[in-house]
Amino acid sequence: MHALIVSGLAVIVVWSLFSRVLERLRIAGPLAVIVLGALSGLLFGEDLGEHLDTDVAEKVVEIVLAVLLFVDATEVRRGFLGGEGRIVARLLSIGLPGALILTSLACMLLLPGTPWAVILVLACIITPTDFAASAGMLRDTRIPSRVRHSLNVESGYNDGLVSPLFIFALAVAEGQEAQGIGPALESALWASLIAVLVGAIVGGATGVMMQVAHRKNWLTAQSLRIGIVMIPLLVYVLAIQFNGNGFVAAFVAGIAFRSGRLEHRRSDSSLDHAEMSAVDDLGFLSSLGVWFVFGAVIILAAETGVNWVLIALGVLALTVLRVVPVHAALWGSALRWRERTAIGLAGPRGTASVVFGLLAFNALREDYANLALYLTIVVVLGSVVFHGVIAPRMIVALTHDASAAPATTADKN
């Protein structure tokens, strides 16, 4: 295991030396790290499975996700729904539940005999979108801003919204006594409410305080950067202590911090890149570590051989099971069908799926644990390739044509 850790550190150093070369070759950094992680796992990862099955491993990955959600949220402009309230509301209230239902049905069809709770766990793992490995898509100015902002806000909220359902399904799958759907939904609602309150209060208050301290020259540039790094960690821990959802809290805190930090400036202006550099770098470095471990984990799944059923399910999850619910959610909206298709295709899976997959791997019995891990690997690895190489070109082509094409009658509604 020590050799695997050393190789992970070395891989990140190597990536840093050739990052610009990889960009020119249009090879996503996470994809390169995954490949090198898989090679390292092949050489040194014999006991990796035992080290993954620990509480420490779970908490580390959860904190990484909290930091990434906070960073993503600070880039959301024009309020809590990014100025695209109708689109985001449709995606979260119709598209997300639709994707969960459709994915659960696909799992039931392709994995007959699997308990419903495990089916729901699998759906929660492979449904939430996350741009950790496809951040370039959100910064591609060739894609309309309303599409990018909608996707960013959706990806920030959906894993937090799914997590209470995932925790409930995981508890049932473990054989714990469930108190019923009503109490479970009530618990999930309270967890989300607590998370919103903690995130809004702490994020907004720290943003305002940093704005005042900066104006009165009480802080240094370094202390400001360090303080911002602490915010998502503080918010996550506080939310967990109050039985809230740490992921939702971290994302809400990012939006609230941005609002408080910018104060009277325009709501669509950007935070100073220099002051956000430390938390940006921490989030990116942490995600590279997750991707390296993920690459090493691929070797564990490879030992079980090729499972064509799970591969087919993974392909469906990245295409039909995402695109159809998105089209249904956005039907009749101001978006043209090409833009709706582009949003459906822009559904990368990343750190959120890895976190849920790791939790399931640790909690479920061996056969279902391996099933969850294998499906996580198929979906995330497929997403890194598809959304890192193929999908961006398709999305640019679709949205470019949409902006030039005349609106149809349906699109005007």
From TrEMBL:
**Protein name as catalogued:** Sodium:proton antiporter
Q: Membrane-crossing residues?
A: 29-45, 87-111, 117-138, 188-213, 278-302, 308-330, 342-365, 371-390
Q: How does it sit in the membrane?
A: Multi-pass membrane protein
Main subcellular localisation: membrane
Q: Which residues form the Cation/H+ exchanger transmembrane domain?
A: 17-394
The protein's matches in InterPro entries, at most eight in alphabetical order, are given as: Cation/H_exchanger_TM
- Origin species, per record, is Leucobacter manosquensis
Q: Which UniProt keywords apply?
A: Antiport, Ion transport, Membrane, Transmembrane, Transmembrane helix, Transport
Look up the coiled coil feature and give its residue ranges.
Answer: none
Q: Please indicate which superkingdom the organism of origin belongs to.
A: Bacteria
Location in the cell: Cell membrane
